Amino acid sequence: MAVPLSHLDLEPGNPDNPGRALADFFRLEHGKVVEHWDVIQEIPLESANPNGMF
């Protein structure tokens, strides 16, 4: 099983667009992808706490 996670910034340097947080999940059988799930969430401009998402 492969589980890549990433923070995607589509407009680097644009403080009005901080990007998206993504996670893709794959289930493999005999070396082939048989299921795929993904989660995509916009990164908020203001965090609910001082730590932020990343």
Oligomer: single chain
Report the C-alpha radius of gyration, rounded.
15 Å
- Helix proportion range: under 10%
Order of SSEs, N→C? EEE
The mean pLDDT is 79
| Fraction in beta strands | over 45%
Distance between the termini: 24 Å
Number of beta-strand segments: 3
Secondary-structure-derived class: mainly beta
User: What are the low-pLDDT stretches, counting only 5+ consecutive residues below 50?
Assistant: none
Arrangement of strands in the largest sheet: 1-2-3
Please describe the biggest sheet, giving its number of strands, its sense, and whether it closes into a barrel.
3 strands, antiparallel
Total helices: the number is 0
Task: Identify the overall geometry.
Answer: elongated
Topology summary:
Blueprint lengths: L4 E4 L11 E10 L2 E11 L12
Can you describe this structure?
- A 3-stranded antiparallel sheet has the order 1-2-3, with no helix packed on it.
- It has strands at residues 5-8, 20-29, 32-42.
- The model has no long low-confidence stretch (mean pLDDT 79).
- With 54 residues, the protein is mainly beta.
- It is 0% helix and 46% strand.
- It has no helices and 3 strands.
